[in-house]
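The freezer alarm interrupted the setup, so I double-checked each line after restarting. Inputs confirmed:
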Amino acid sequence: MASRNSAIDEPPREPGLPGPAPRRTATGRATDTLGAWRSDGAARWLFIWPAVLLILALSLFPLVASVALSLSKLVFNPGSVDLDFIGFSNYQQLLFGLERSHFLGVLKSPNPIGWAILIGTIGLAAASWIRTVRSGRVRPVGLALRLAGIVVLGGFVWLLVQTLASDGGRPGSVVVTLIFVFGGIALQLTLGLGLAMLAVQQVPWRRFFRILFLIPLTITPVGVGYMFLMMTDTSKGPFEPLWVALGLRNFTWVTDPWLARLAVIIGDTWQWTPFVFIVLLAALESLDQEVREAALVDGASRWQSFRHITLPALLPVTTTIVLIRIIEGFKIIDMPNILLGGGPGTATQSMTLQAYIDWNTLNLGRSAAVAYLLLILVSIVATVYVSFIRRRVTELA
Amino acid sequence: MRSPFRRRSATDLSPPAKLGAFVLLLAWAFIVLFPVYWLFVTSFKTPYEVDKGPFYIPFVDFQPTLDAWKYILFDLGNDTIRPYINTVIVGLSSSVIALSVGSLAAYALVRFTYRPRVGVVGLFIASIAFAFVPTAIGAPPLLGFASGIAIFAILTQTIGRRFVRAFGNSDIAFWLISQRILPPIAVAVPLYVLFQQVHLLDNIAALIVTYVATNLPIVVWLMRDYFASLPRELEESAAVDGASVYRIVRSIVLPISVPGLVATFLIVLIFAWNEFLIALVLTSANAQTMPLQVAAQNATRGPQWWAMSVLIIIMITPVVAMAVALERFITRGILVGALKG
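Predicted 3D structure, all chains:
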């Protein structure tokens, strides 16, 4: 059992292809027979280059062009539309100037709970860093990177407590986006994993369930937005009798910032749980059942077989889904836009929605600046996630 | 009669646990189905009935009418059919291409080792920056592009060989997925300019190329984990028997990866099928896709719920049909069978 299991859990980055040639150079090429070298060498390039070239072709120009756009301003002159270079003033506006309360939020000094959270988080992070230093297993570069990660984390927590755990503070689009992303992912992952675990069992109607559960994903996000607008209507929607029965006939959840955000997260979860579900289902289905059956026959409990066989095999793909959902989730726009137009006020305005509104009002420069700040933010979050969480979890598994 | 909840094998769930699982699945099925049901009944309502308050059951609560269906399918006619055909072509072709190109790249990232030198990547970025210089002074963009490539080629062949530090496979994978971070809002205008240069605006080819590129990272990441979880013994024994990489991929890896391939295909198909913003910017009349039609139903008189419902229903039908057809491939046992054989 042990050997079979270790084969399944083989880390993805094992060098070289198993082949007739036992010895390989550092570049992974087999050197002893010409035939093996040829087929390996050609395949190495044939397999990867089409993907790399396609992505390069379509991503380089937008990447460079939007930097240029974010540093300029659209100006309407008589007879022409020009882009004037204005330096970093779009960024300056968002981070320090007029748009700061919109983008970062209204920053007030935290209340006692806020301070406690801030100090607690930084304390924990610092303690784990010191432990890493003492263990002596990480090189100085790694230590410096970890320290930078802690500083960034501290900055985020500082922003969060200033806007959420303070008197008079109000979250801007950055914090709202973070709430949507992490609230949504937590719900989607729990539901998706639970449903996938249930749907692999030999229960009646299981084909029906599996197909049915995919439906929310197949509806275009714009359509899901309008559908939830219908569902949440308290006077014409299907739940009207329910609202009346609860004495909430004239109640509008639209005016409460947290209820509005909750509605967005619920809509997002309805739509994206199937994504987690289908990927985990495919992973569960391809697990080697014999190992699990052998464990159960040998007297392992169901929990033990889940904890030691199923979960480790699921972890790599789970961390991938979380990464994809982080990246996609930060781009959330349709649900808050259609349900609430970003309101009440700017309470559900995500970063992409802010960029979209600027874009619609032809403030292309600031729109690109918001998008670029989003790019930087997500890159940081994704890098931290991949290098700390994903790697560790995959090693664990 | 035998209970549908009976134990089917020694390791199967006990009947009460099975019943519990069934009830939970049923509950989620209701949550999923109810909004869809609402969409369905709304498509048979008149504007008056939608506005008057909730009516639940056709023939009991209200008299269903086919007005909205007639409006979408016949009154709008070609304005529905053309976007529909576009959506089908764009969705299917872009996902098939993305799946084939992406899974090869994913396999390569799992089984081969790549060492792109840090310095060469740096040279590449520098060459790109340089490529903008001629364009800035007024030379045609193509010339700048060509000179950038030429400089890159010369530099890598000369000083490029001296670099030692290199990235690894995981860095390549991370670079791939990072291409999805920039929101469509920021990508849309530059893409518009790009496709304007090659005269592909309002052409479904532009959409296909864009969707292949945007979906590739997803395919690579999902399939990479999938390939990594496959037992290596099979490939190793085939390689010992003298099979080439192509043979191993075609006859061993792809057949046992069908569940992962199917799931990934469905996901990227759905992404391409439903993409809104890039389609909005890159198309005007000929190449419009269905999501644009759905959004267009939010007219000056407020959302036309009935028409929107019809559009959404006809949009999801083929995808759901495909899920029904492909679901049987996501079944257990394929891998186990392969290992025994």
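Quick read of the result. Chain A touches chain B through 126 residues (CB under 8 Å).
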